[in-house]
Amino acid sequence: MSAVGMPAAKGAVPNKTITVHMMDTMKYNFSNLAGIEEGDIVKFVVMNKGKIPHEFGIGSIEEQVAHRKMMKEMPNMKHEDGSTVSVEPGKSKELIWQFIGDETAQFACNVPGHFEAGMHAEVELH
């Protein structure tokens, strides 16, 4: 459980789908990030459009800071924990998340150096 939600329960039906393109320019391109509300179940279709590995993680700002610190200590770590997916170049994965709470949710690539280069986005939950 995160301060901004949790992986959706098995069999949960998403009420929104958002496509995320991960780019080697250290940017995420979202199909539509507006209007995420507390209680929404969102299916993220995460596609690595680059030539290097990236990750897509969801958490509070504080949780992402802690995750980045861990990734610096273990830079080759791969994730499949329900809140973060590691995606190899040219591949795609899905992550289904239920947003809970009213904190700022942060989407981040915590591969060392990627967040600092701009690979993150924030959304206010309502």
Descriptive report:
- The longest helix has 13 residues, at 61-73.
- It is built from one helix and nine strands.
- Strands 1-7-4-2-3 form a five-stranded mixed beta sheet, with no helix packed on it.
- β2 (16-23) and β3 form a beta hairpin.
- Helix content is 10%, strand content 41%.
- The chain is mainly β and 126 residues long.
Keywords:
126 residues; mainly beta; 9 strands
The number of helical runs is 1
Structural class: mainly beta
Beta-strand residue percentage: 35-45%
Please mark out the parts with pLDDT under 50 across 5 or more consecutive residues, or reply none: none
Overall pLDDT metric: 91
Termini distance?
A: 18 Å
Secondary-structure topology with pairs:
Elements: E1 5-7, E2 16-23, E3 27-30, E4 41-48, E5 54-60, H1 61-73, E6 84-87, E7 92-99, E8 104-108, E9 120-124
Parallel strand pairs: 2-4
Antiparallel strand pairs: 1-7, 2-3, 4-7, 5-6, 5-8, 8-9
Brief characterization of the structure:
The protein has one helix and nine strands.
